[in-house]
Amino acid sequence: MTPIECPHCHEPMRRWNTPTFNFSDGLGFCTPWLWICFNDECKYFVRSWEHMKKSYGQKLGYRFMIHPDSHESGGIPVGSPIALRGDIIDEREEERRLQLEPERGAIMEKIHEHEKMIEMWKQHLKEKGL
Ligand SMILES: [Zn+2]
Fold first, then answer.
1. Contact residues for 109 (Cβ-Cβ < 8 A; gap 6+)
2. Rounded distance from Cα 45 to ligand 1 centre (Å)
3. Residues 66 and 81 in one domain
4. Is pLDDT at 105 greater than 90 in this prediction?
5. Which residues are bridge partners to 35 per DSSP?
6. For residue 12, how far is its CA from the centre of ligand 1 (angstroms)?
7. What are phi and psi of 70, to 5 degrees?
8. CA–centroid distance, residue 96 to ligand 1 (Å)
9. Ligand 1 (single-atom ion) residues, CB below 5 Å
10. Cα 36 to middle of ligand 1, angstroms
11. Among candidates 122, 128, 36, which has minimal Cα distance to 86?
12. In 3D, which of 97, 96, 65, 90 has the Cα closest to residue 78?
């Protein structure tokens, strides 16, 4: 998938797996992933830390995010620059997985066929009284 550009720093955004639990609003994200800017130099990200510190005295920042379907944008709160990074979708890994998907399907089908054949043989032997 071609990444979209962050409007704040013009770096490509990353796809990020949304957690299975819901956020505090109880609504969740209604999407399996979001576009998030993981550039630590991003103006939006850098300013968010300053803003949170000045306004609320909190050590908290926001990463810029865009909803892939509705294109709604907003900030995702993070407690540190490394937060959320574990759930970034590895595009190369994802591609490999998608490529392997049909192969796995074919293997499962073969296994199923073999199982059916064994069943038929068992039935056959039973009928012959063996
Ligand atoms: Zn950015």
1. none
2. 7
3. yes
4. no
5. 15, 66
6. 8
7. -85, -15
8. 27
9. 6, 8-9, 37, 39, 42
10. 8
11. 36
12. 65
9-41 pLDDT tens trace: 999 999 999 876 555 554 567 788 999 999 999
Write down the pLDDT at residue 100.
Answer: 86
Which residue(s) pair with 33 in the sheet?
17
Tell whether 49 and 70 lie within a shared domain.
Answer: yes
Residues 73 and 95 in one domain: no
> pLDDT digits over 49-101, tens only?
999 999 999 999 999 999 998 999 999 999 999 999 999 999 888 888 888 88
Predicted pLDDT at 78: 95
Number of independent structural domains in the chain:
2
Domain identity same for 109 and 79: no
- The single residue listed with the structure tokens 């968010």 is 48
Q: Domain limits at 124? A: 90-130
